[in-house]
Structures are given as structure tokens and as C-alpha cells.
Amino acid sequence: MAVVDVHRFAESITCHAWSPDHSMVAFCPNNNEVHIYKSSQDQWERLHVLEKHDQIVSGIDWSSKSNKIVTVSHDRNSYVWSLEGGEWVPTLVILRLNRAALCVQWSPKENKFAVGSGAKTVCICYYEQENNWWVSKLIRKRHESSVTNVAWHPNNILLATTSTDGKCRVFSTFIKGVDTKDPKAGSPAESKFGEQILQLDLSYSWAFGVKWSPSGNTLAYVGHSSMIYFVDDVGPSPLAQSVAFRDLPLRDVLFISEKMVIGVGYDSNPMVFAADDTGIWSFIRYIGEKKEESSGSSYSSQFSEAFTKFYGQSKATTANEASESSKSRGGVHDNCINSILPLSKAGSPKVMRFSTAGLDGKIAIWNLENMEEELGHQF
């Protein structure tokens, strides 16, 4: 089993983030608070409770270099928290939103962070030294619905977003005085702020988690129709692939290498996707499930099985039976997994440890070391 540690912190967890040394975790227990716990001798001790928001905290990110925490909430506000004298001190960020803030992420250089919202806008926030405050610039009139997730490209300029309008988009976030121009003339990084580099219409349902590969050459995002999408050569002529699977939809994804992705979601168990030598992506297996001797049943047999389950004797399948099915594959979570985070140094080409958090209130730590043979693929 790849699970190293599992702990239930609350009845439900909406989001989580780790300190730079991964010794502390911050999460929202499905309310307006952020709890910070520290691991000590196989025990978790609560150190701080951050209380400033008025509604559910929907996004948290903890910077690995500056040791600052940024939080966003349905109350339409964002705070940047700094540790001063053993206490976390908040600084309000003016987002100028009229709908809930839904997600947040620091940029790789940590001089900016992006906030997705229910107002169909993305806020790019940066610090103004002259005025000693955080300000935001908005990317407007591009999304047709709520922005569910954001992901920074390693170049610190390009930003990918997903939305409930079913589209994935890539924007330039170049801000004069904050960013430096890319030495490659004519690169997308030299585009003006808010310019749309790419729009992907691959999904016909809500789109959720989005991530870049370590090199920034591949983009992956998921749809609510039990599909995951991979895009290479992001630009005027992208190469896109769609991978469908027969289980419940995903909510978030994580590249653990250039050729392998972990997806998590409503099936309560991490799923492994990998690319072969020709660059074709496919679903491999669930983490923790025993590897089958055969390569899997054919599409027709899968369809027959689904048809039988829908119309046959198992017509009254309950949530408990679905949970038992997940447990039979080695499931650790009892409810939807809503986030997955790497537990490795920023910019690392491979991620051997990661964490997952879910609506069951659990945070699980996974270790993939020495699992290449079990998974049947090299990282």
C-alpha cells in the first residue's frame, strides 16, 4: 500500500496546504476558519486557528520561499498571512469581486498569486512596495461562468484556468514592473496582460482541476463527464488527447512526472494515468489495487457490465455499496477527494510523495517510492 499516514482532522475539509518543510498543514474544516496543525512524534497538534473570513474558506496556498499563507473565501475577500512573533498576521487584499472567490495559487516566483471566482473573472494579485499593500488586476470578459481552478506555468507568466462553462483557457499575466520579459522574442510570455493564448473546448461539462507538467510542455485538466484531457504544444496549434474512464468524475490532478498523472475525485481513490513511448495517454489503475493479469476487459464487456448494473438486479445500488467497491480497490477516503498536493521541492521533475484531502475530513499522505514495478510504468 502506498499510504504512509492517514488522519481525520474534521467532519469535512474543503482545501489544504503544506508549510515549506511539510511539517505543518493548514486546512479549512468546511467553515470560515483555517486550522494549522503540526506533526510531532506521530501525533498532530493544533497550533493556530486563523479567523478573519466571514464565510467558507474555499482556497489556501502556502508559499515555499516566503512562508506566507494566502486564503480566499466565499465572502469575496482574500488575506495574506505573515508569521510575526509566533502569530499569523493578516493583510487584506482588495479583490473587487461581487461573487465568491473559489480558488487561489501562488506563482512559482511567489511575487504574484491568482484568484479564481464566481464572478467570471480571475484576479492577479501582486505587492506594491511603495504603498505597502497587495493590489489586483482583473482578467475580465473571457469566462462565461465560474472559474473553478487556476494553475501557473513554470515561466511565472502563463496561467491556465478551468471553468464551469466547460472550457480551459491559458492567459498571459505579464505585469510591467513585476515580471521580466522572456529572452525568447515572440514567446507567449511577451503577450500583454490578460491576453488569451489558448481556449480549449474539449469538455462538454464542467471543467475542474488543471495542472502543468514539471517542464510546462503538457497541460492536463478534468471534466465532470468522467474524462481527463491532455494538451501538448500549448499555442496556436496544440495537440490534444481525451481519455474517458467508466468511473466517477475527477476533481483534481497532479503530475508526478512528465509521463504520469494522478487524478482524484468522486471515486474516493487516486487514479493513475500514464503516457506510453508514443505519447498516448491512458488510464492504468487505481493506487493500492492489485494489478490484474490481463490488460482489462474490452469496451463491449465494460458496456455490458454497466448496462446490467443499470437495468439488472443491482438496480438499487446504494452509496454504501459504492463505498465498499472503492474500499475493495484499497480506498483510504470515504468520500470525494477534492484536492491533491505534491510533497516535494518546488520544481522537482518527479513527485514521490503527495497528499490528498477530502469531504470525509481526512488528509492522507502517499508514497510512490519503489512502486514502479507495481504500477507497471516508470516515473
Defining traits:
379 residues, mainly beta, 4-stranded antiparallel β-sheet, globular, cytoplasm, actin-binding
How would you describe this structure to a colleague?
There is one protein chain. The chain is mainly beta and 379 residues long. The chain contains three helices and 28 strands. It has helices at residues 299-311, 319-328, 372-375, and strands spanning 3-8, 15-18, 24-28, 33-40, 43-51, 57-62, 69-73, 78-84, 87-93, 101-106, 112-117, 122-128, 133-139, 147-152, 158-163, 168-172, 196-200, 207-212, 218-223, 227-232, 239-244, 250-257, 260-265, 271-275, 281-286, 337-342, 353-358, 362-367. Strands 1-28-27-26 form a four-stranded antiparallel sheet, with no helix packed on it. Strands 2-3-4-5 form a four-stranded antiparallel sheet, with no helix packed on it. Strand 7 and strand 8 form a beta hairpin. The longest helix is centred in the C-terminal third of the chain and has 13 residues, at 299-311. The two termini are 17 Å apart. Mean pLDDT is 86; it is low at 290-323. Belongs to the WD repeat ARPC1 family. It is found in: Cytoplasm, Cytoskeleton. WD repeats lie at residues 50-91, 140-172.
